[in-house]
Specification:
homodimer, alpha+beta, Ubiquitin-like (UB roll), 2 domains, six-stranded mixed sheet, 16 strands, about 35% helix, about 25% strand
Amino acid sequence: MKLPLGFRYASAYAGIRKIEKDDIALIVPDQPANAAAVFTTNMVQAAPVRRARKNLIEMGKVGAVLVNAGNANCATRTGERVVQLSCAAVAKALKLAQKELVFPASTGVIGVELNPKLLTNAVPKLVQELSPENFEAVASAIMTTDTCMKVASEEVPFKDGTIRVAGMTKGSGMIHPNMATTLAFVMTDAVVSPKTLREILKAGTERSFNSLTVDGDMSTNDTLLLMASGASQVKPMLKEKQVLAEVVAWVLESLAEQIAADGEGARKLIVIRTVGFNTCEDARRVARAVANSPLVKTAIAGSDPNWGRILSAAGYAGVQFDPSDIDVELQKTVVCNSGLAAEYDEPELKKKLDEKEVRIRIINKKNGKGEARFFTCDLTEGYIQINGSYRT
Amino acid sequence: MKLPLGFRYASAYAGIRKIEKDDIALIVPDQPANAAAVFTTNMVQAAPVRRARKNLIEMGKVGAVLVNAGNANCATRTGERVVQLSCAAVAKALKLAQKELVFPASTGVIGVELNPKLLTNAVPKLVQELSPENFEAVASAIMTTDTCMKVASEEVPFKDGTIRVAGMTKGSGMIHPNMATTLAFVMTDAVVSPKTLREILKAGTERSFNSLTVDGDMSTNDTLLLMASGASQVKPMLKEKQVLAEVVAWVLESLAEQIAADGEGARKLIVIRTVGFNTCEDARRVARAVANSPLVKTAIAGSDPNWGRILSAAGYAGVQFDPSDIDVELQKTVVCNSGLAAEYDEPELKKKLDEKEVRIRIINKKNGKGEARFFTCDLTEGYIQINGSYRT
């Protein structure tokens, strides 16, 4: 992977998780980096989310990201204290001017008290291990029920030199749009103002993390952070800014796709595309309703081309349309034509539905300009097994 | 069961289902009965739903209910024709004045063409078998993936005599509020006007079928019909009307509870109660979000008192509240106190969560007057198994 210049990474086992696997991580720009973030819109928010939002508004910059992936630090008496003490420890060890430059994030079980010492004790080791090489170690440490690490990167030659964008994220349950869903950290070494970062992040999030659902549950801890170290000394000008925005969006989309593909218990990534609807909002609603339908997701799990469930889910999306205008394609095979069963080779289609990636396309023949895309995964026994015994 | 006077029932096997189990049924009042109905709000509606709505608006009465439980008769080329021919056959066999007095309903797979002859050929046999005794045979014939028959009845002594109310319904996937969800037929022998029936049905539906979710999927065929034969010759007066409304609501609630308890793959009924919220609408939204959360439902399946998921689902319901005002009770045990973990005996509570009925109570200590109740079920591997291979 081509990694952005100007960032160092470290992970360690702090004893927060029961099993000995790194559960704490640090991402540190060489200098406090311009940054933008989006957070969960849940009314119940973890202490680190509240603090990170406050710090970022105050400082506009991030001097270090401290991630605890063993405990959500949410709905606990110790939440604030853990954040306070651990951020202070990081600021001190890194000699940051202010502890508000530390951006805390966490994920894990809700409502379980956490001993702040577990975090503060781990800080010296973390700081000592900081290295540009540890990007993937951190990506791996932030995993909870994920079965694989989720990273993406890209580099782009601009007029004044090359810039890099790299991101990491974690899934894999409690995934639903309306904010960043889950933790994601995206770094670039381009020179970018906080304002531009906010615009880039907003547009990119809409196309990626806000177009993603695993189970319709929205977490209390979701945080998506974009930082620019400026270490490439390349400042994108004019159209280059748009290119940078595209590249960040591409990295975010890749991360979102990886989350869907690794949804809890998932065997298949499902990509839903809606076209021809009145507005993009209408197209989005239809795509989201289909993406959230357990009946569609179990049908795909069973490689069953049960397009009636797709049409039915579209029908309760709260969008006006005439069913006789609707075509549905599964793996590029037309299964529903003008709202009615199309002729297709069912055994052949079932075989295509066994693939790791299933594409559903819903076409409104009224030919409106509204279109959208949504990522999700199939719903299998594995989801139940993972979530019926997560805590115990 | 004490059944309302003035109705006859019949069921038969018409060859619509693959397995030989009754798949067609008839409910016939001795005289066309005053009636009210609610239907799915899905944009995609089965032919019988469209026709039943139209017929009822036109006639205000129902002379016969024809149910096909083997094929949804939705999104097919033959949909209209099947309805037309089968209703005509029933009207003729019963010597009804108009074929519009026949109220068609159907449930089953979507998008599979249906031969109208299967229905019309079965009509003579159905008519021949009509009997007041066959109530449960019909309740059993309308079942699809249900594991048990769902019926409820009640009788009430009024000043002028006794009246009876009895209902039947079927589940058990594609269950979501916003209309009658699924098929349900409720009969009374009281003398009631269509207008009063509509009021009674609306109020009762809100408390029962619109407070029920299995998987968040809303069907294309949902129909809930209330008929009054008047055969008791008892006309409820003044306060008796309210009593009748209560009794109908009670029957509907019982049916809704039975659907939740027999949700696809379900092992447990979950009853969610929310109290102390600003408005009943707020309370309903919170209860619904918790009822729809796969994470809550899988936790209950695993007897895991993971109240953090309950609090988190409440938090994304779109309702303003302060998490530190919230208490959560599981089986009457306080698990979350003012948004924080309460002390409780976990092994003992886990044992209580093994019971067939799990009660979740969410209390907003702001003491608002808004309260609500929602029915749902746990989410198990069984749901996946049933729905991954329903068609094939």
